[in-house]
Amino acid sequence: MQVLVRDNNIDQALRVLKKKLQREGVLRELKQRRAYEKPSEKRTREAAEAIRRSRKQARKKAQYEGLLPMPKRKPARPRRPAAAPATAANVSTATPSA
Question: For an engineered disulfide with 13, which of 5, 40, 51, 54 has Cβ 3.0 to 4.6 Å away?
Answer without folding.
Answer: 5
